[in-house]
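Many introductory courses stop at the sequence. We go one step further.
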Amino acid sequence: MKVYQRYIAREVATAILLVLLAFLALFAFFDMLGEVGNLGKGGYQLQHAFAFVMLRLSGRAYELMPLAILIGTLYALSILSRHSEITVLRVSGLSFGALLLVLFQVAAVFGLLAFLIGEYVAPPAEHAANQLRLKERGRSVQDVRSVRNLRSGLWVRDEKSFINIRLVLSDTRLRGILIYQFDDSGRLRTVTEAAAGEFSEEEGWRLTDVAHTELHDDRAELQKLAEMSWRSALSPEILAVLMVTPSRMSLRHLAAYTKHLEENRQQTNRYEIAFWKKMVYPLAGLVMVALALPFSAGHFRSAGISLQIFVGVMIGILYHMLNGLFSNLGAINGWSPLFSAATPSILFLLASGLLIWWVERR
């Protein structure tokens, strides 16, 4: 890498890191304010709220990375333009393409960092944060994502069985379990009701205080059991996934849960879109630096740093809104998951290409 490339890369990377730290501090402050109302509930104290906020910072960093890249690049290039350093490089023969290549290298590093955070750091940290808050507040979790806010709890289909779980505890133990098993003809054959369930690797689920009913053509047989083994594809890992929104899941968990839904002939579009969004997400940094470059030269340079940062924030918000819009439209209309996930980035990349072409012509 040449001297000017290292210099530009260092200035841009430093600005991105400073912007990211500033955003993290701001969001941590707001998250802490949001936790103040929970203090004193159960054993939830100030130190627990602080730990909860800190554990969620990795997820915040993952979400804020594209916006930090955009604003940091805008700021760094604006400073370089104000000192006429970009102008000197341009007069010396540096093309927008060569400058964009340097910015792409910086964005690729931060994109890789975002991918690693989103895949290996943020999901377990988010889960640990939820467990901490639930444990200290002495409460259970009732999953409402899959049940559409029904009061009956979580409903899951596992092959020929329909499972209703009233409560999922923070350590994925179960309370209030109903298992309806059907035969190949779609007739109800057994109903199993258990007060609690706990998982072990050797035995699978161990249900306690069980009422097991077998339905025959002309009669029903009821058995009362203190304990009962239950084998199911519904594992603690899947239950842990159900306690996290798709956008906070890792690719591995998304793939595993999508496969589980496919095997049970359930809708997977929402999770497939989330999977492809995470795959495309590192490319958002390349789109952001491509958008920032035209605003650092020519007519845009005279607008001032404050206005450029404001424009950057607006572009970042628009990008975030389009991402959410296409994800929802894709889930509703059954669009291709890859199309729903990649379209906003492609649109913004085309817009940045047109801006760069227009600036070059001037």
